[in-house]
Amino acid sequence: MNLFRAEWLKTKRTPIRWLTFFTPFLFVALMMGYFSLKAQAANVQISIFEVFFETWTVLAIPLGAGILSGFMIHQEAFAGSFHGFLGSQWPRRHLFLGKFSILVFLASTSTFMATLALIVGFDFISGVAIAWPIFVMAAILAMIGALPLLAFHYWISFAWGFGASIGIGGVGLLIAALMATGLGDQVWPFVPWAWPVRLSMLAGAYLLDLPGMDSPPEIVSSGFVIGQIIRGLIPAAVLFVIMLVGGMIWFNRWEGRTIHE
Fold this sequence. Notes:
The protein is built from 9 helices and no strands. It is mainly α. The chain is globular, with a radius of gyration of 20 Å. The mean pLDDT is 89.
């Protein structure tokens, strides 16, 4: 916890906090403006769910993972080419996990703030009834799917720097956009950038099972949705462990790099 607090203080007066806490409200405000211009149909909640989670998991998560992790590591590179960071009295694994825990905290906070703002905004301001447990479940699944990406970008940021992390985030955005379409129906469990969008959208199937909705035949009661979620969670968990453990082993032997690299 001491290391967590120390890493949190490093984000003070940096764009990191602005990106984390301002982006969700801006995103939800734009969404509310968009839906205020549309005629509200009976299935407006489903449209809100699809637009929100598809956009957030395709745009915000891949780019956010690249920007947040890249900027956090760039701070250490700029402050003495990692000498102060690597020369700390803390064990290497604590240093690695301490900064990574802040990265996960920031990404999770931003996602859940956006989800909460969406629920409150549409339910209490726009008067659209929101089945909040399903939205929260989708946000949790999106973050579980994002954990391997965060670990991957964290490792890349140490090894190759800010530019590489951002560049891979941009490529991941394109991959996630493709996987959100029918092109990814068969291969998405094997594509890390597809996990946040696909897992979160699977939770949306439960909106179709609410009273008054025309649910597809047996899509929920047959266990299809649960099976698909498990199909995505298993590879996500395996890759997360590989990225985290592999990153710690590599970091324990790493001697830093110069800023121009």
